Amino acid sequence: LELREEILRDVAKVSSYASLRSAEDTRNQEYQALQAKAESLSSSAQSAASFLEPELQRLEADEVASFIDAEPDLAAYEHYFDDVLRMKPHTRSAEVEELLAELGEVAGASSDIYGMLSNADMTFPTVDRPADDADAVEITQGNFTKLQKHPDRAFRREV
What we know:
By secondary structure, the chain is mainly α. It folds into two domains: 117 residues, Oligopeptidase f, N-terminal domain (Butyryl-CoA Dehydrogenase, subunit A, domain 3); 33 residues, no CATH class. It is built from ten helices and two strands. It has a two-stranded antiparallel sheet with strand order 1-2. Helix 2 packs antiparallel against helix 6 and helix 4 packs antiparallel against helix 5. The longest helix is centred in the N-terminal third of the chain and has 23 residues. 5% of the residues are buried. The model has no long low-confidence stretch (mean pLDDT 86).
C-alpha cells in the first residue's frame, strides 16, 4: 500500500508538471509530447495498481478491521479501506478493472484533442466597435460570447 501510494503520488507530480508545461503554450510540440508521455505513465500506473481494489473487496469489513487491529500501521489506510469497501457494489472483476484502467488514456483522447485545438493560442481578427464605443477590439475566446451579445446587430455580424 505504501509503494502504491508513493508511485501514484510521484505519477501525479509528473502529470501536473507536464500538464502545466503543456498549458503554457499548446502549440509547443515538445510539451505536448511530454503531456502524452505523462498520460501514458499515469494509465500504466493505474493499470498496474488496478488489481488491489477488487482483491480488497473480496474481504468483509470485519476482516479488514481485524487486519487493522493486528497491524497498527494499516490504520493510516482505514479511510481508503472504507472507500474501497463502500464501492464494492460498483466495481468489476480485477481483469475488467485493469482493462478499464488501460483504456483511460484512450477515453480521454477526444477531450485532449478538443483542448489542444480550442486553446492553441489561436489569434482572431480585430474588429471595429460601433461609433459610440471605444476603439477596435481583438476577438478572443474569452470575449467572443460577450461580443456576440452586443446591442449593435452589424457589430455582432462582424464579430
